[in-house]
Design goal:
Elements lengths: L1 H22 L2 H18 L3 H23 L6 H58 L4 H28 L2
């Protein structure tokens, strides 16, 4: 998700650069090119880093705006507490949503692994029945290689799935 958001940010910078280029604003053109280069260079390999930075900035902006828009006669502490409580609520809702998405993806991964396992079992049993009749056939040897590759893929995907489940 962070990668997609970084790409969207880069697209927005490019659109602004195109718009400003038509206006011939050299200083702004230079600054936008530097921003694009910095975003691509520094955050392309780790888009989560820029996502965290932007999230923190937006959170701080919301806190400042909430403090600025509160009534003058109201106590500052009460407003800040309400802001913190609502921020915590949003954080909890965001985490719950992320967990739901992760659970859905895990379910899809498990179903995919089950389907792959069923296909492997079917092909392996078919191979065993063919192997009893003709062990030297080139077709059987080719199918055994394909089954071994399928087994390796299945094993790898299980390990990757287990690794992500334990994060």
């Amino acid at each position: 998700m962070a990668t997609i958001l970084l790409q969207n940010l880069l697209i927005q910078v490019d659109e602004q650069l195109d718009r400003v280029s038509q206006e011939k604003n050299l200083l702004l053109i230079h600054n936008l090119k530097r921003i694009r280069k910095l975003l691509q260079g520094k955050y392309h390999g780790n888009p989560m880093h820029i996502a965290v930075i932007i999230s923190n900035c937006l959170r701080e902006e919301r806190r400042i705006l909430a403090a600025a828009s509160m009534p003058v006669q109201g106590p500052l502490e009460k407003s800040l507490q309400n802001s913190v409580v609502s921020e915590r609520q949003r954080n909890v809702e965001h985490k719950v949503s992320a967990i739901k998405n992760s659970a859905q993806m895990t379910d899809q991964d498990v179903k995919y692994l089950e389907d792959l396992q069923e296909e492997f079992d079917f092909r392996y049993k078919t191979m065993q029945s063919l192997e009893q009749s003709d062990k030297n056939s080139a077709l059987i040897k080719q199918e055994m290689l394909a089954l071994q590759a399928m087994l390796n893929t299945l094993d790898y995907k299980r390990k990757v799935s287990d690794m992500f489940c334990h994060l």
